[in-house]
Amino acid sequence: MKGNHILAMYFHNPSKKEFESCIKWLKTNGFTFLSPDDLHSIITENRPLPKGAVLITADDGWRDNESNLVAVADKHQVPITIFVSTEAVEEGAYWWSYLDKAKDLKINIPAKSSLKLIMNDKRVALINEIKRQAKVERQAMTVEQIQKISKSKYVTIGGHTHTHPILVNCRREQLYNELDVSKQKLEAWTGKEIKHFAYPNGDFSEREMRALNELGYKLAFSSEPRQIGIAELSNPYCLPRFGLLEGASLAENICRMTGVWKPLMLKFRLPELAKDENTTIESPVYRSNKSESLLTS
Ligand SMILES: [Zn+2]
What we know:
The protein is α/β, with parallel strands linked by helices. It has helices at residues 16-28, 36-44, 65-76, 86-91, 99-102, 112-115, 120-131, 143-149, 172-190, 206-214, 230-233, 250-258, 262-266; strands at 6-11, 32-33, 53-60, 80-84, 155-159, 196-198, 219-221, 242-243.
């Protein structure tokens, strides 16, 4: 772990205790904490990779991130990046949370894992049917929270699309709209340029990388569990990250980070995806696999 590579990791909605124990472990073991801007300057200035460096991120923008992540980052003076989906900030909940309501409403809807594999228009239509009839309590941060945490010098806010679709399942104009709308909203809320991005569910294709570049994003993170070495820096739009399993022990998560689990995880890769009849799904460079579906959202 202390070689010439960077360990980028992602959380979603960890408890304060699990996040702080992870930060303390990394600090005690002498890791150097990098922000995405630090990583971007390493790339653009062609500087050597620091030894034992770590980059901490969290996806979605969960309401409790303010007290559980930002408070810890401020206390320990370490940089963290939170990738925020803007529709959930405005509406309160993430699309997959409406699935729990389907049964009560007697709406027959495929499982979350299946919805991640169909065209985005179809998924949106199914979720909207539930949204019209059900309410879900707030899960995401409010605009005021985003404004507040973005003032911390340890916090970087990054993009995570507007509606959190699986981007490879989107039509071209949907893709550009997702990346552009969320960037503009976050920039208006924080007063800062939004330069970095994390792919929802970690899935992307060549098309997504091109679009991010065109729209002015500098770095993009996937959920492929590898370290960032020299080779990975050649393409700043597919930076791998390790997912931290929330609710698991710190020991298990250290095993994940150090790659002890990796040979096991590879056994569970999904078979080739079945083709949807009228699909125009982009051929993915990376899709998260079954073992990572515990981690991705
Ligand atoms: Zn997400």
